[in-house]
Input
Amino acid sequence: MKKFPEGFLWGGACAANQFEGAWNLDGKGASVSDMCTNGTATTSKWITTTHHPDRLYPSHEAIDFYHHYEEDIALFAEMGFKVFRTSINWTRIFPKGWEEKPNEAGLAFYDRVFDCCKKHNIEPLVTISHYELPYALVEKYNGWESRELVGFFMNYCKAIFERYKDKVKYWLTFNEINAGTMTMGSILSLGTARGYEGPTAGIPDDMQARFQGLHHQFVASALAVKYAHEHYPQFQMGCMNIYAPAYPMTPDPKDILACQQRTQMTNYFCSDIQVRGAYPFYAQRYFEEHGITVKMEPGDEAILKEGTVDFYTFSYYMSNCLTTHEEDSGPSVGGNLVGGAKNPYLQASDWGWQIDPMGLRWSLNEIYARYQIPMMVVENGLGARDELTADGKVHDDYRIDYLRLHIEQMAQAVADGVDLRGYTTWGPIDLVSAGTGEMAKRYGFIYVKKYDDGTGDLSRLRKDSFYWYKKVIASNGEDLA
Output
């Protein structure tokens, strides 16, 4: 295997809404995530229009990074992190989203976080919007369906860019922006389900609202990138997508074509716009067949062209098979918003997510061949049911095996010639699951005593994988034993 490049950015990734807690402290407003209850692997979480005192809202406390950030960042530093991908809670800076002036207490919190990172020689990689849209913007504007949100987002960007211009170099505009091509994106990313209260798995779909909302996100992202390039040339601006390979179940040309179409609209539609600066050719037919009309304002096409990103990042968890032969498709599987037919050649996690390390090498090659810009894998990890022993240990060899296999395939992709700059595992510390709202689905190298009923003393414990990842980083990915 080719060695990882010198200066490779090893680290981990978290999201403010999944680990910060302190949901209403120091002037913070309610986000979409703060309106979501807990669920399980088999029972959908709910989104509610008001808070119900008899329901548990996991984001309200989460693992309380807000009050534990120094301890947690010190643990990341102990592992040797070079980079920490985190996000800013929009509602900590602008509680409702439309205020003219930012909330100083919120800005000061992230000053402390980034200063703590600097103290430990950890580079922040900051996602500007990671599934934490101000809920007030949903109520008043139906989220990103309204053009008004472009201006609100830019006001937010200008505030944080100026405040952290000397502390943050790497920025991502929207987390998993292509979630907006899927029904669940109406809640998680776009906020285009105004007035809906019920299980997130049962949300009624409005494709017109979703794709109009996506257009506004594209414009907002491009404006933010353009503004950063003009005012803060030291910034590196990136996009972030879900990437889930789709394999044909059979050699039937119909299955091949179905995979191509899924790959275009799910994996590439958003990044084609953010990296190449224009709507791709294949979108027109898709819009016509689904009755979608994207309203653009004069100048939007120029904005998209002028606001292309500097680097590409993505989450990678699993792959799926697709077939047009429903009678022969067998059981279905899904994960990270994407589903398909079960691949008989792959194993699966406790949550049924199929494990496909070679698919990561394939994906890196496919994406790099398409875009030819620097890349990072900014989410990859194994959600599992960890058992805490009586003496406070977690023997998570299964997580070590999962990560080892994926890192080996990243090294192969580097040998293939892919310009891979960094790798941040998802959930270096246990946090709330975005999909199910549960704590039982644990990803971290660090165990947090917090449980699905809301109990737990929030103490932190190092798992076996903690020491393994420390060794991986110290050897720049060469010692994976």
Remarks:
- The chain has 14 helices and 18 strands.
- The CA atoms of residues 29 and 91 lie 5 Å apart.
- The chain has a mean pLDDT of 96.
- The first strand starts at residue 9 and ends at 13.
